[in-house]
């Protein structure tokens, strides 16, 4: 055999034993007549000592970084122990060695503080994977995988594979398509998720299914997206929403325990989608810190205020009484929102100016920023204090739940843009104040999403989740008894469909959606109604989903499920912003595998076999 032990296995208890190791050369250090070599494999590093008798052989066969070496010798206690590695008390006194394979000079150093940039390391990913930092990420990924599988097995879920070559049913992201040689002019699609298959498995009686499965979406990429990604995909039959929440809350808590040794014993907080948008400005809020948004002015169609006593109602909406003044920016704005940044009242003019420039950046899109300093002596100072007396400033600060020493930051403008900008500002301030700690984890359920959104440019309803999501049980009749058509697109908020809530749920961790799902439609009539609401003709629905509608006529049980973003969950547990760090062979932000140089062209013979011609004009 090539080795009797791994490079991370030997301890002082093995001193005196004769062993054989094999691995990669990390470093070579010559000191006169002796040479030290650090030998590395997946399990660790062991120091090799080549004495004077072997130095001549080393001179004839010099070792370089990343050479693959086999060494036999005696385990010896080190004179200069290294407390930073588990094998640091011993070394291997080499009696014989052989070079199994030489290595070219690596394009970057194979160590944690490497000198290789992202592009270079992506090109030589097989070398990057040797680094401990990357290895730890993949070990964490495997631990999450193993923990999830164990939990689901214990709860009687079956791991059932579903096809990768399926029918294209575009609804959401673009499909990746695959031409069929045997069926000229026809194409498979790669699945965006196993959605319809897992529902069919429920119809088939497999009441607890899961897969840790690849999914594919042809969409624009960024650091937290990949064209192929992994889900923990689950489905259950004969369940209601509460059953799903309890089951998969348990799964995530089990992963925390197994992978991070965290006993997450607290009840996971639950809020509605409206509460998330009202208090945090987005539907995946980070609740590791406060700084909830104060809505000081909102249009008529927005969510009702929680404190109507201090709000003045108008024909177009409502505003906080203390907002009244001659300040035109607030008067002309559709929405005015505020957050209180803790302990920031002593910000200098330079610091507040820098924040103003931050919100003016194109990606934020605001015209300016108003601030109110809540001084520790009880006084208030504002960038607009010529428009507001101190009593009004105090009332506005109180509305934002500001404390003495806080800095209230106020944004005003178009509702959608202002809400998003305030959410971004909240996260930015939390980062600056050190409130987003990588070693702190806060779970959240967001419930009761709208079932539909209205696409005004297309003049039709679209599904907020997907077209298989059921309405809340008490709103099914609203959907059945109303037609989806709208005569005046500008009045879609008056249509009954705008108020239908989905029987859906998202799990959020530290401001990231890590899982989402719903109770599914399982009656043919309701599913046909959903397809019609999305603008599908009866013929189109039958062409795309006739197999599912037909299955619903053969005793489909009530069912629902949830899919976790496996890559995202691993990244958060590993304290990273990018899922690429936790994928063995990721694509870059252009969707390219720079190691394989893919995607790439195919030869004319393949085009001829597929009966395809390219038109690149």
Topology record:
Blueprint: E1 18-31, E2 34-41, E3 44-50, H1 52-60, E4 68-77, E5 90-101, H2 118-123, H3 125-128, H4 132-154, E6 158-159, E7 177-179, E8 187-189, H5 195-203, E9 208-216, E10 228-237, H6 241-260, E11 269-272, H7 273-280, E12 294-299, E13 311-314, E14 317-320, H8 328-332, E15 335-341, H9 349-360, E16 370-374, E17 380-382, H10 390-399, E18 407-413, H11 415-432, E19 443-447, E20 452-455, E21 460-463, H12 476-480, E22 504-509, E23 512-519, H13 524-533, H14 538-551, E24 559-565, H15 566-573, H16 604-610
Parallel strand pairs: 3-5, 6-9, 11-19
Antiparallel strand pairs: 1-2, 1-4, 2-3, 4-5, 7-8, 9-10, 10-24, 12-14, 12-15, 13-14, 15-18, 16-17, 16-18, 19-22, 20-21, 22-23, 23-24
Task: List the main descriptive attributes of the protein structure presented here.
617 residues, alpha+beta, OB fold (Dihydrolipoamide Acetyltransferase, E2P), Gyrase A, domain 2, 4 domains, 7-stranded antiparallel beta sheet
* Count of individual domains: 4
Q: What amount of the residues lies in strands?
A: 15-25%
CATH superfamily of the largest domain: Bira Bifunctional Protein, Domain 2
What percent of residues adopt helix (DSSP H or I)?
A: 25-40%
Name the average pLDDT. Answer: 93
Biggest sheet layout: 8 strands, mixed
- Helix/sheet category: alpha+beta
Number of DSSP strand runs: 24
Q: Please name the CATH topology of the largest domain.
A: BirA Bifunctional Protein, domain 2
Q: In CATH terms, what is the architecture of the largest domain? A: 2-Layer Sandwich
Q: What's the helix count? A: 16
Query: What sort of overall outline do the alpha carbons produce when their principal axes are compared?
Result: globular
Low-confidence sequence ranges: none
Rg calc:
30 Å
Overall CATH class of the largest domain: Alpha Beta
- Record the strand order, biggest sheet: 6-9-10-24-23-22-19-11
The first-to-last residue Cα distance is 59 Å
